[in-house]
Amino acid sequence: MVGVGPGIGLAVAKRFVREGMSAGLIARSESTVKAAAEQLAGADVLPLTADVTDEAGLRSALDRIVEAYGVPEVVVYNAALIQSDRIGDLTAQQHRDAWAVNVVGAITTAAHLAPAMAERGSGSFLITGGMPLPKPDYASLSLGKAGVRALVTLLHQQYGAAGVHAASVTVSGGVGPGTGWEPDEIANHYWRLHQQSPADWIEEIVI
Q1: Which pTM does this prediction carry?
Q2: Any domain includes 97
Q3: What distance in Å separates the CA atoms of residue 159 and residue 84, rounded to the nearest whole number?
Q4: Record's superkingdom (predicted)?
């Protein structure tokens, strides 16, 4: 789980460990990943810190997870830079920074793990999507989530025939209790995607 902060990340981790899985947990801050691990007390988890924009650091954390648990059965990329901005508000560097979190970190994660999953012939690579329609007040996030959607399609084209299910859960609104986007309910969709047989694979669930 890359991006295991409170909300979707923690809920998805809980859903999968409830099925008896071990979990590698990655977050940018030590306090965040420790809090998540405490919420998963009793499960076999490995909490690690890494910034998804630091390619070497992210790859090192992923290697530690593979060393502990082997090639993962499921990878969830949940990191995102959620901020309100309109076209013209951000500098070019700020757009690159947002893209690095929202898309490039997912590319790095996939490039590091998907080939081994394909060699094994199975696995799920799931990404938290959003913005089914672009919103002018969330320009950088809209662009990032469009990139995620394209990335899922590319991963399916490259690795689907080898047995790797690439898909996204596209969340259409703000996540939280009482919002209509409850983290625990959202987490069930990740498990549903992971459980699909190849004949029933879909690339995106929009909720």
Answers
A1: 0.95
A2: yes
A3: 34
A4: Bacteria
